[in-house]
Design brief:
Layout lengths: L2 H30 L10 H15 L6 H10 L8 H8 L1 H11 L7 H22 L4 H23 L14 H18 L6 H10 L4 H25 L5 H25 L5 H36 L1
Helix pairs in contact: 1-5, 1-10, 2-3, 2-11, 3-4, 3-12, 4-10, 4-11, 5-10, 5-11, 6-8, 6-10, 7-12, 8-9, 9-10
Amino acid sequence: MDVHASITAVLLFILAVLGFVFLFFFVGDLRKNRENMEKETSFFLGSLISFVINFFDVFGIGNFAPGASLYKGLKQTDDRLIPGTLNVACTIPVIAEAFLFIHGVKVEPLTLVSMIVSAMVGAWVGAGFISKLSKEKIQLVMGVAMTLIAFVIIAQVTKLVPVDGTAIGLHGIKLVIAVIGNFFLGAVMTAGVGLYAPCLALVCLLGINVSVAFPIMMGACAYLMPVASIRFIKQNSYNRKLALGGNIFGTIAVILAFRVYLLISGSLPSHALKIIVICVMFYTAISMFYSLYKEEKGRSKHRDIE
């Protein structure tokens, strides 16, 4: 077994352990609160949402932007709970993705491990911060972050971000920039904003080959999500019914999508899908800002009456 295969095996073993630790906390929380699951949430609709967003996540589209938009648009949960719900509901599906994809592409171990660890630390810090924010601040953070990431994807689609790098690893100041950048992306991901697009842009700007970016961004997400999700669970800051359906049906979607991926050799029209994601992100951002505006207007009217 070569060095790359050995390190990959160790990484996947650690990821499996993280997955079981997440399930320990998640199942324990579900059992403790089985009598007071969210009545306003549709298990069927939430599961369908998870199936769709995780299916397309396999092709690098991301599941957080469309997930946040559908949860909000279909009134499945309170805005304050969207970040935690997305993280908890997508944890096992994303771990499944990592197991299916991460061993297939060769990337320098130092780059892969350091970027995974930095994203995990960022997620732990970010989840602790996000879980304590008010609904209004969550709306503001998500609105701003969705807008910024949408512009990042636009830069990718229009090829303003280079995608023709050849490196399979980073060294020196480039590695330092990548590690710091992934720390902040891990933190922002806990606000309900996906890591795939900005991570892809970051490593491509630093000269990484685009195919090598996939195990980096999938690995970072797979490792940081159990860490962040455990914190959201402990803070009681997620929708249990959506998370339960999400982990079950999202994982089924990932397995089916992987079969499709193999059949079509990953040739899904991702360019067109990314344009759809851009529209979804702008729609979600505008919805968050509008909700924030309405609530602030309502509070001002209430103060005027008093």
